[in-house]
Amino acid sequence: MSAAMDTESTYSGYSHYSGHSKKAHRQGRDRHKSPRSKDGSRSEKSVTIQTPPAEPLLGNDASRAEEGQDDNWGETTTAITGTSEHSISQEDIARISKDLEDSVGLDCKRYLGLTVAAVLGLLVFLTPIAFILLPQILWRDDLEPCGTVCEGLFISVAFKLLILLIGTWALFFRQPKADLPRVFVFRALLLVLIFLFVFSYWLFYGVRILDSKDTNYQGIVQYAVSLVDALLFIHYLAIVLLELRQLQPMFTLKVVRSTDGESRYYSLGHLSIQRAALVILENYYRDFTVYNPALLTASKSRAAKHMAGLKVYNVDGPGNNASGQSRAMIAAAARRRDSSHNELYYEEADHERRVRKRRARLVVAVEEAFTHIKRLQAEEQQKAPGEMMDPREAAQAIFPSMARALQKYLRTTRQQQYHSMESILQHLSFCITNNMTPKAFLERYLNPGPTLQYDRDRWFSKQWTLVSEEAVTSGLQDGIVFVLKCLDFSLVVNVKKIPFIKLSEEFIDPKSHKFVLRLQSETSV
């Protein structure tokens, strides 16, 4: 109870202090605002997207203020803001609304396809049973006795239908992973083949058996057995086309993220472009580190600062064209570029020094906190069971001792938008529950992880658009390039065919491994 009260008092004091410092920071920022911010560098049609409802641990614009402050600024100042710096134009908003409208059509198309497949599957399984039962219902008295042969055929039909049902459930009845822009060609062909096959069997059954009221019941049952056998062979064909054909790697795909250049390589078999894009996106959320636009703002602000320092004066009057001004600005930028590498070098060195320093502080703070909770557990075992703390209470008890170091480190590395207070507490309680070490707790924050590691509210990529010069239903070919676009970035995919490898054999006789020791007069041997 005392630990919980201390935690509440710590949070309340921290929030009061943060509000006071936030006001002071805003006044100072307004007072020292650069005139560069008034030149309307952003479009007039831009809007600002608010952050997700989860409480961020830090402000998103703290990274800008970080550049001009020393290592101890966090001891006296805490800046917290609730807005994000990511902007989109009205054209992007219109495109998003159009995508939402199109998603309704995609849902209708998906449910329509599932309905057609379900009706066709039901027809397939009921057809052999109907072939056997209809003669028994319509002209039972006229049928010839079948005996043991028909009973054996009944058992065969029952087990074959059971096997077909299990195989169909395993192959077709799966949770859909994505909405593809076009239909799956092989699956559509299989559905058409099954429909034509069952229709032809019904047509022959109606003309040769129902109209003539055939009395050979054994032949009718064997006709139903032949239908089930043919359906099993079609199921084998579906396994080959849908599953086995794509297993052998034939192409190597290089995937590059357009913003930061991070790339991965994947080997795929014979797939269509849309299915290859689906495989790439499934691996993207696992293999690529999470997209962090805050890491790109430093280079953009540095380039804007260099360009803002250039001024061009038109001494010939307003009538002169602007081509001379453009050439003058390019020449001046080239002259300044010769000295800008020094500034970049020192900026990166200073940033790496701050990261190493704050990482060391964070590691020490977390290790001390975990040592404290271990000591609390050893002491609490001797007390009454009613005073024992659960993992959530233990996490709340030790979190204030590491919160400041974690705040400063996440701000320095610009990861504050991905970690809320609640998510950190949940991760801390999870580590305490499973008796994990401080190093295991810090792994999530010291190294940026894949997109799946974070909450879905923190993802910048949820809806994708496939852009390709070729038809998305066509297969992969050597040299094809297609792009997967989302709101903030895109994935550029380049397809290369795996070359044909010619491997030859050369035999070496084991008896040929003979050596001679050559001695020289200068040696000591």
Automatic annotation (TrEMBL):
<feature type="transmembrane region" description="Helical">
    <location>
        <begin position="153"/>
        <end position="172"/>
    </location>
</feature>
<protein>
    <submittedName>
        <fullName>VANG1 protein</fullName>
    </submittedName>
</protein>
<dbReference type="InterPro" id="IPR009539">
    <property type="entry name" value="VANGL"/>
</dbReference>
<feature type="transmembrane region" description="Helical">
    <location>
        <begin position="111"/>
        <end position="133"/>
    </location>
</feature>
<keyword id="KW-1133">Transmembrane helix</keyword>
<keyword id="KW-1003">Cell membrane</keyword>
<feature type="compositionally biased region" description="Basic and acidic residues">
    <location>
        <begin position="36"/>
        <end position="45"/>
    </location>
</feature>
<comment type="similarity">
    <text>Belongs to the Vang family.</text>
</comment>
<keyword id="KW-0472">Membrane</keyword>
<keyword id="KW-0812">Transmembrane</keyword>
<dbReference type="GO" id="GO:0005886">
    <property type="term" value="C:plasma membrane"/>
</dbReference>
<feature type="region of interest" description="Disordered">
    <location>
        <begin position="1"/>
        <end position="86"/>
    </location>
</feature>
<feature type="compositionally biased region" description="Polar residues">
    <location>
        <begin position="74"/>
        <end position="86"/>
    </location>
</feature>
<feature type="transmembrane region" description="Helical">
    <location>
        <begin position="224"/>
        <end position="244"/>
    </location>
</feature>
<feature type="compositionally biased region" description="Basic residues">
    <location>
        <begin position="19"/>
        <end position="35"/>
    </location>
</feature>
<dbReference type="Pfam" id="PF06638">
    <property type="entry name" value="Strabismus"/>
</dbReference>
<feature type="transmembrane region" description="Helical">
    <location>
        <begin position="184"/>
        <end position="204"/>
    </location>
</feature>
